[in-house]
């Protein structure tokens, strides 16, 4: 029945508004889940940094390796935080889109006409390029185009500087700043050990290092999953 009415009278504005709000809520829930996962990764990575730092201080034979691990985990923490900031900003943009969309439909109901919004179009154009939201944001943009709120989008050839930046190695200064924060200024300053550990000492160290590497690989996999 709705489809027949749409042929003669055009899409029902109320139905369109409900669809748009449904898609926005769906995207918001997705971002909330991703942000929660990143917060969990943030907490675990902080724990790994503290654990590695303590090992560097307590076990001179493991100092060099453990100190290197603290920096590796600090770089991962920086990437996690940049991703969290990006998604949090996107969530705020999405909420702004929802308010603007509802306002546009309200104006249409009162005035009987609808003015295209360049503000909504700009936000949607940004959000549709976000890997986490690409599919559902495309659906939302289609509904907004049908409703006459925005023009056709999207110039997907534009580079996403934020995503490119995430792939770069963080500067040592940033890494040290994170370590100062997590370790509350008590960075381990253990000098490189000259004597090599014995075979008996090396075995458990290698096993622990392999466990840390496996954990780190798993964390990177979860972080990459959130970006793809």
Unreliable runs: 4-9, 157-164, 188-203
Helix content: over 70%
Give the number of helices: 8
Q: Count of DSSP E strands? A: 0
State Rg: 25 Å
Q: What characterizes the major β-sheet?
A: none
Average predicted confidence as pLDDT = 75
What is the terminal separation in angstroms? 39 Å
Order of helix and strand elements from N to C terminus: HHHHHHHH
Percentage of residues in strands: under 5%
The shape, in one word, is: rod-shaped
Structural class: mainly alpha
In the residues, how many domains can be counted? 1
Q: Which structural traits does this protein have?
A:
single chain; 228 residues; mainly alpha; 8 helices; 75% helix; 0% strand; rod-shaped; SNF7 family protein; Snf7_fam
Indicate the topology.
Blueprint: H1 2-9, H2 13-58, H3 63-111, H4 118-127, H5 134-147, H6 161-166, H7 172-182, H8 199-226
What does this structure look like?
It is a single chain. The protein is mainly α and 228 residues long. It has one domain (2-158, 166-173, 196-226). The chain has helices at residues 2-9, 13-58, 63-111, 118-127, 134-147, 161-166, 172-182, 199-226. The radius of gyration is 25 Å and the shape is rod-shaped.
């Amino acid at each position: 029945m709705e489809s027949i009415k749409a042929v003669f009278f055009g899409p029902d504005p109320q139905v369109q508004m409900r669809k748009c709000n449904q898609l926005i809520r769906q995207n918001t829930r997705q971002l909330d889940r991703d942000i929660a996962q990143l917060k969990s990764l943030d907490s675990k990575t902080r724990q790994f940094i503290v654990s590695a730092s303590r090992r560097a201080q307590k076990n001179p034979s493991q100092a060099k390796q453990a100190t290197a691990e603290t920096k590796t985990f600090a770089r991962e923490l920086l990437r996690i935080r940049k991703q969290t900031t990006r998604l949090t900003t996107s969530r705020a943009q999405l909420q702004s889109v929802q308010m603007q969309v509802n306002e546009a439909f309200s104006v249409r109901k009162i005035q009987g006409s609808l003015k295209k919004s360049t503000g909504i179009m700009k936000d949607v154009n940004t959000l549709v390029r976000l890997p986490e939201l690409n599919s559902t944001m495309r659906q939302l943009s289609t509904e907004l185009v049908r409703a006459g709120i925005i023009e056709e989008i999207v110039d997907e050839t534009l580079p996403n500087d934020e995503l490119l930046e995430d792939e770069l190695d963080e500067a040592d200064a940033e890494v040290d700043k994170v370590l100062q924060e997590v370790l509350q200024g008590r960075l381990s300053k253990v000098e490189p050990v000259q004597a090599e550990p014995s075979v008996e000492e090396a075995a458990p160290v290698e096993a622990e290092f392999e466990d840390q590497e496996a954990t780190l690989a798993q964390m990177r996999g979860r972080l990459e999953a959130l970006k793809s």
